[in-house]
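Weekly puzzle thread! Below is a chain. First person to post its structure in token form gets bragging rights.
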Amino acid sequence: MFEKILGLPTHVFVVHAMVVFVPLLAVLAIAYVGLPRWRHRLDWALGILAVVTPVTAFVAVESGEALTDALVARGYQGQILDQIFEHSRYGDILFRIVVPLGIVAIALLVVTSGHPRVPRLPALVTPVLAVAAVALSLAALVYVALTGHSGAEAVWGTTL
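Winning reply:
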């Protein structure tokens, strides 16, 4: 299921979405926390990205594993395989950051919505969610860069 699209590895397509969605989610989450007056303009985009980004991250991880399995089956070994495994480790960590970031972003949207159906929560909830959103956003930005760089290095490092 995660192997090919139009004859090319699915991973090739999905990683480009990750390079766009993860930084957008991170920056929007930080902006949502830091610019309360703009929340009503950012909430829809943050909500969409909080759902789409973790789903895309899941597809990236699964398609990456399928691609790795295909490369191992074709006889890849040595340094290139080590680079692929390093990239895979970074991708797994990124996935483990993006999922909680999506959850925290949605929780932050709900808590700050002012909707009458949202129960009254302790005053500490919003600041805790805000700190978590910023911390996870910063970690996501670091790991999307590490993951992308290690993947690009594995693909292009020896050819240029």
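Puzzle host: Confirmed. Bonus trivia for everyone else. The longest helix spans residues 39-73.
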